[in-house]
Design goal:
Structural class: alpha/beta
Number of strands: 11
Number of helices: 15
CATH superfamily: Amidase signature (AS) domain
Shape: globular
Distance between the termini: 16 Å
Strand content: 5-15%
Helix content: 25-40%
Radius of gyration: 21 Å
Largest sheet: 11 strands, mixed
Oligomer: single chain
Strand order of the largest sheet: 1-3-2-4-6-5-10-11-9-7-8
CATH architecture: Alpha-Beta Complex
C-alpha cells in the first residue's frame, strides 16, 4: 500500500475482530507498521506528535475484552487518531503549542470516552496548527505536517495531522476539530472525507476552546461509510456540555440505502466565482452531473451575504479566542516562564508560549472587544452573522434539500507558499459560512488535478446529517475510482 492509499474500512476491521479472524492487537500492530512505513513521525510526514507503542498495545488488550465481557462495540478494534486539542488521559494534549508542552489532561473528552466504549483504540495525537489557528498546519510548535500525496504540499489545517493520518492509510477514522473549516479543508487537500456536524450535535467537553460559538469536533474517514460510523459513535447529547443538543442521533450508515431521486440540490452562485480554479470548477460540475443522473434536481441558488463571511469570521473567532486564551498565563494554565515581577512573568510566558499566528489573533480579538470598538466591530459582525445564517434558512426553506459547492478554491498549495495572513485566511472562503450558521457540512473526494485531490462540499439544514450522508454515499458510488484519480 502506497502513501495516499486507503486503509481497510472500519466496518471490515470490526467484522474481522468480531468473527475472530484477527484480534484488536493485530489491528493496532498493522496501524503502527503502516505509520512506520510511511514515516509518520517527526522525521518524516510529521503526522503524530504523540504515539506510544506500548500504551497502544495496552489499550488494544483492553478493547479486546469487549468480546468476552460485553456486546461488541460498533468500532471494535478500529484504531482512531485524535487531534492534539482533544483531551485524553494518557497522551499529552498540547494543542500544537509550546504553552502546553507535556501537559496531560486529568480528564478525558466525551468523544474519546465514547470511542473507547465503542471498542475503538485511540491511536496517538495528531499534529495541528497551534490552538487550531491556521489553514496549513504550518503554525505548529512541532513543525509542519506534509501532505501524503505530494510532500511539498500542505495537508491543510488546522487538523492537518488527522487528515494526513487517514490519507496515508494508517487509520480509517480520525477526529479533528472545526472552527472555520479545519476538518473540511484538510479533508479536501488530502483526498479523504471530512464531516462537520451541526453545532450541538457532538459534545465539546474536553475540546480545548478556540472560539466557543464556532468550535466543533468533526470526523475524518477514508470513505463516507467510515465517517458515518465515526460520527454515529461520538454524536449525541452530553450533560457535561451545555451547548449539546438533546436530539436523537440516527444511524448514519443507513443513509447509504437511500435514493437521491427527487432531492433538490442547490448550486450557490457565490461559491462558483470567476476566480475559482477552472479545474476545481470542472470537477464540481462533473459531480453535480452524476447527482443529476441519479435523479437529483440541481438548481442555481443564492446566498447573498457569502462575501462577508471571511471578515465576519475573523472578527468573531479572534474575539472569542482572546477571551478563551486569557487563561493560559502561567498561573492558571500553561508553562510558566520567569520574568521581572508579575507583569514580567506574564509577558515572558505569553510571548514565549504562543507562536506568531496565535499572537496575531489574540491581538486582533482584544482590539475588536476593546472600549470604543466593540460596537463598531464585534457587535456589527454578530449582526451580519445572523444575516449569513438567514441566507441558509431562506434557501433551505424554499424547498432546497442540500447545497453543493467546492470545499476549497484551489487544490493543496505548497508549504511556505503563502506568507500573507489575509491570503491564507481566504483559503477558508467556502467553509466558514457553515460554522457561522451552525449547519452541518462535509467534504468528500471528487477527483484530482495534477495528482492533487479536489473536494466537493455538501451542506444540509440543521441536524439533517443523514440527508447529507445519503447524497455523499450516492456520489461516492457514482464516482467510483474517478474520485481518486
Amino acid at each position: 500500500m502506497t502513501a495516499g492509499e486507503r486503509p481497510r474500512s472500519a466496518a471490515d476491521v470490526r467484522k474481522e475482530v468480531r468473527n475472530g479472524a484477527r484480534d484488536t492487537q493485530a489491528t493496532v500492530e498493522q496501524a503502527l507498521q503502516r505509520a512506520f512505513d510511511v514515516k509518520a513521525g517527526m522525521d518524516g510526514l510529521n503526522i503524530f506528535v504523540s504515539l506510544d507503542d506500548a500504551l497502544l498495545r495496552e489499550h488494544a488488550r483492553g478493547a479486546a475484552t469487549q468480546l468476552a465481557d460485553t456486546e461488541p462495540g460498533s468500532l471494535l478494534g478500529v484504531p482512531v487518531a485524535i487531534k492534539d486539542n482533544i483531551a485524553s488521559l494518557h497522551h499529552p494534549t498540547t494543542c500544537g503549542s509550546r504553552m502546553l508542552k507535556g501537559y496531560i489532561s486529568p480528564y478525558e473528552a466525551t468523544v474519546v470516552a465514547r470511542l473507547r466504549a465503542a471498542g475503538a483504540v485511540p491511536f496517538g495525537k495528531t499534529n495541528m496548527d497551534e490552538f487550531a489557528m491556521g489553514s496549513s498546519t504550518e503554525n505548529s510548535a512541532y513543525g509542519p505536517t506534509l501532505n501524503p500525496h505530494q510532500t511539498d504540499r500542505t495537508p491543510g489545517g488546522s487538523s492537518g495531522g488527522s487528515a494526513a493520518a487517514v490519507a496515508a492509510g494508517i487509520v480509517p477514522i480520525a477526529l479533528g476539530s472545526e472552527t472555520g473549516g479545519s476538518v473540511r479543508q484538510p479533508a479536501a487537500f488530502c483526498g479523504v472525507v471530512g464531516v462537520k456536524p451541526t453545532y450541538g450535535r457532538v459534545s465539546r467537553f474536553g475540546l480545548v476552546a478556540f472560539a466557543s460559538s464556532l468550535d466543533q469536533v468533526g470526523v475524518f474517514g477514508a470513505t463516507v461509510d467510515d465517517a458515518a460510523r465515526g460520527l454515529r459513535v461520538i454524536a449525541g447529547h452530553d450533560p457535561l456540555d451545555s451547548t449539546s443538543a438533546d436530539i436523537p442521533v440516527p444511524d448514519y450508515t443507513l443513509a447509504g440505502t437511500h435514493s437521491v431521486k427527487g432531492m433538490v440540490i442547490g448550486r450557490p452562485k457565490e461559491y462558483f466565482p470567476e476566480s475559482l480554479d477552472p479545474r476545481v470548477r470542472a470537477r464540481c460540475d462533473a459531480a453535480l452531473a452524476h447527482l443529476a443522473a441519479l435523479g437529483a434536481i440541481v438548481k442555481d441558488v443564492s446566498l447573498p451575504h457569502t462575501d462577508l463571511a471571511v471578515p465576519v469570521y475573523y472578527i468573531v473567532a479572534p474575539a472569542e479566542a482572546s477571551s478563551n486564551l486569557a487563561r493560559f498565563d502561567g498561573v492558571r494554565y500553561g508553562r510558566r516562564l520567569p520574568g521581572d515581577g508579575l507583569r514580567g512573568m506574564y509577558e515572558a510566558t505569553r510571548t514565549g508560549g504562543f507562536g506568531p499566528e496565535v499572537t496575531r489573533r489574540i491581538l486582533l480579538g482584544t482590539y475588536v472587544l476593546s472600549a470604543g470598538y466593540y460596537d463598531a466591530y464585534y457587535r456589527k459582525a454578530q449582526r451580519v452573522r445572523t444575516l449569513i445564517a438567514d441566507d441558509f434558512g431562506s434557501v433551505f426553506g424554499s424547498g432546497v434539500d442540500l447545497l453543493f459547492t467546492p470545499t476549497t478554491p484551489t487544490p493543496a498549495f505548497r508549504l511556505g507558499a503563502i506568507s500573507d495572513p489575509y491570503e491564507m485566511y481566504m483559503s477558508d472562503i467556502f467553509t466558514v459560512t457553515a460554522n457561522l450558521a451552525g449547519v452541518p457540512a462535509m467534504s468528500q473526494p471528487i477527483g484530482r488535478v495534477d495528482g492533487l485531490p479536489v473536494g466537493g462540499q455538501l451542506i444540509a439544514p440543521h441536524f439533517e446529517e443523514d440527508r447529507m450522508f445519503a447524497a455523499a454515499y450516492a456520489l461516492e458510488r457514482a464516482l467510483g475510482d474517478e474520485a481518486h484519480r
